[in-house]
Amino acid sequence: MNVSNKMGVYVQVPFCQTKCTYCNFHTGVFSRSLYAPYVEAVCREIRERRAMHGARVDTVYVGGGTPSLLEPADLARILAAIRERSGAEWEEATLEADPETITAEKASAWRSAGVNRISMGVQSFDDTELRAAGRMHRREDVYRAIGFLRGAGFDNVSMDLIAGLAHQTQQSWKRSVDELIALRPEHVSVYLLEVDEGSRLGKEILKGGQRYNAAEVPSDDEMADFYERACETLARAGYEHYEISNWALPARSSKHNLKYWRREAYLGFGAGAHSFNGAKRWSNLHDPAAYTAAIRSGGAAIEQEEAVTRAQALDEEFFLGLRELAGIDLARIEREYGASMDARVTKLIGSGLLERDGDRIRLNAERLTISNEAFVELMG
Ligand code: SF4
User: Based on CB atoms within 10 Å of each CB, which residue in 133, 299, 314, 359 is the most buried?
Assistant: First the structure.
């Protein structure tokens, strides 16, 4: 693990108003009556986790799901529990928010509670695409929401887009990227639609069906093309491409997410949340009701725990570290792991995936759209 005595905290809020067709997260539509006991359980888990006592928490990330559905007072309770245990004030506290859930009142309550960064799930500026994806918001909601956020004083806002939504065309994609840039968010994420068994849409595409507008989903080549166009347009607009899926204006990269790629420590709270302390990774029960019941009864909510072997840690240095476009420092890795990386690096450079610059290796900028699978295979 890279040496750092600071720690990130992730809080999972798995509640959504509806299930988007492409969603492959462990989230769902639950009765609102579960929200308050769930928040209570999260606060208790934070207070009782020994590793939190006196920890120097410099980043907080409240994700989901749709955490902006929570009552602001509930969110404030969670943040207060973190502050109470860790003492120090964080540098960055991000809240994921869906456009239709953002109001002027909520935005100002979030700021008062200590949130200083919002990650907004925009996905597209095209209502046909949003409707087909099962999203609750429409283009107009994004404009309204950014007004409320700026009005409340948020000067660090991230917006997500998805390349590959049903009905997306070259023109509609260009419009979405242009409209997003015109709003000048400090940070941008572009994700490619994931087609797998984990989502309703993914299953339908895999079996060649028509439901959920599956037949209208762009081809892999079109998606790759959308991504490349976004790379060019964002670069021209002054955004630095710092991670495969992420761009930022100067000094606005996500401090919390950098911890994942740099293998720094973080503690996760809530249903399905993951934690990492350098030596092991563990995760909580995924079902929110089961998680809440386990914490309430005074037990731990851990579902899975795995020690990270030296070989796994070394693999992670590559497949996590190389997500950052600045690449990884081979000299540091060779020093920390006491092994020569020559054979592995020669293979990766030979594949055309990587380029070398002194002690640094990084992904070849021309090959960023290659699938994760090909990447992982080459890591072996
Ligand atoms: S994509 Fe986001 S908002 Fe939609 S169901 Fe999944 S977690 Fe919820």
Answer: 133
Pocket of ligand 1 from Cβ distances under 6 Å: 16, 19-20, 23, 25, 27, 64-66, 98, 121
- Ligand 1 pocket: which of 23, 162, 196 to mutate (most atoms within 8 A of CB): 23
Geometric angle at alpha carbon 251, from 248 and 255, rounded to 5°: 80
Q: Which of 19, 119, 130, 193 to mutate to test the pocket of ligand 1 (most atoms within 8 A of CB)?
A: 19
Q: Please list the residue range(s) of the chain that carry CATH number 1.10.10.920.
A: 309-380
Task: Indicate the CATH number for domain 309-380.
Answer: 1.10.10.920
Contact predicate 86/55, CB 8 Å: yes
Instruction: Please give the distance, rounded to the nearest whole angstrom, from the Cα atom of residue 77 to the centre of ligand 1.
Output: 23
Q: How many CB atoms lie within 10 A of CB 47?
A: 13
Nearest residue CA, atom 7 of ligand 1? 65
Q: In what order do the strands lie in the sheet with 354-357?
A: 328-329, 360-363, 354-357
pLDDT at 96: 98
**Quick one: pLDDT at residue 341?**
84
The Å distance, Cα 19 to ligand 1 centre, comes to 6
Ligand 1 atom, smallest distance to 27 CA: 7
Amino acid 347: pLDDT: 80
Q: What is the CATH number of domain 6-261?
A: 3.20.20.70
pLDDT of residue 319: 86
Could you give the angle at the alpha carbon of 103 between the alpha carbons of 99 and 107, nearest 5°?
95
Task: Say if CB 43 and CB 81 are below 8 A apart.
Answer: yes
Q: What pLDDT, on the 0 to 100 scale, is given for residue 154?
A: 98
